[in-house]
Automatic annotation (TrEMBL):
Classification via PROSITE patterns: HTH_GNTR (PS50949)
GO biological processes: L-histidine metabolic process; negative regulation of DNA-templated transcription
Organism this protein belongs to: Trinickia terrae
Top-rank taxon: Bacteria
Lineage of the species this protein comes from: Bacteria, Pseudomonadati, Pseudomonadota, Betaproteobacteria, Burkholderiales
GO function term, MF aspect, one: DNA-binding transcription factor activity
Keyword entries, A-Z: DNA-binding, Transcription, Transcription regulation
Domain HTH gntR-type: 25-93
Name of the protein in its database record: Histidine utilization repressor
Length: 251
């Protein structure tokens, strides 16, 4: 369906899967259904502009306040985003993760009904002085991995992890395309405690490239250390594109 073939307000489509006849709904609800359907069908992509209020008023033959209400509610529902002076855009997808509970990212993605894949960039021994100190060790080497996690082929997390070899001596022998480091470690040795910090900052060129980000686009970076018994088990930086991800939690 092209942009010039918009349906009249009695169009028959339940964009969210309900069976309420469209003609029984208020006009602003019908416009909301139409917008959601165009997005769901892939006609309007995340980040792309939708028709202006004036164009929608002309196409649907309704008052401007009706169109304005529909777009305002879709913005509140995070379907759209409105930029003053620039227009209205389809909201980019934002994946959510909890920071108060250490979870496996593959499980979180599966709960959203999506597919997780991983690409291992680095799996090696390291004598990085900062990592050795963070793990509470007197000397190296320590184990080091860099992994990019994908949700439906879209990169959403760059994982840069250092691991204590005394706690996980077989870490470098694992296939982390089949099992995430988090799942592997929790399966072997339950975590006793953790500390974390969250930063909003620009990534370096390597992180930006693997997360397919624009120059200058910020990341949410979660730094975390976890303990198994009295030993620091791992120190990790988890980088997430701020435009596609947010962190949440409840206490």
């Amino acid at each position: 369906m092209s942009d010039t073939e918009r349906p009249p307000l009695n169009w028959q489509a339940g964009a969210r899967g309900d069976n309420v006849p469209a003609r029984a709904l208020p006009a602003y609800q019908q416009i909301k259904r139409y917008v959601v359907k165009r997005i769901a069908d892939g006609d309007w992509k995340p980040g792309s502009a939708i028709p202006t209020e004036a164009e929608l008023v002309k196409e649907f033959g309704v008052a401007r306040m009706t169109v304005s209400r529909a777009l305002r509610e879709l913005t509140a529902e995070r379907v759209l985003t409105r930029v003053q002076g620039a227009g209205t855009y389809v909201e980019r997808r934002r994946y959510e993760s909890t920071v108060l509970e250490i979870r496996n990212i593959a499980d979180e993605i599966a709960e959203r009904g999506h597919r997780h894949t991983a690409r291992v960039l680095t799996l090696e021994r390291s004598d990085d002085a900062g990592a050795i100190d963070a793990l509470g060790l007197e000397a190296g080497p320590v184990f080091h991995s860099r992994i990019v996690h994908y949700e439906e082929d879209e990169p959403i997390q760059f994982e840069d992890r250092y691991v204590n070899p005394r706690v996980f001596p077989e870490y470098l022998e694992q296939d982390f395309t089949l099992e995430t480091p988090n799942h592997y470690m929790v399966r072997l040795a339950p975590i006793q405690r953790a500390e974390f910090r969250i930063y909003a900052q620009k990534p370096d060129a390597q992180v930006r490239r693997h997360l397919v980000m624009e120059i200058g686009e910020p990341c949410l970076m979660l730094w975390r250390r976890t303990w198994v018994g009295e030993d620091v088990a791992t120190s990790v930086q988890l980088w997430h594109p701020a435009s596609r991800f947010h962190l949440a939690g409840m206490v």
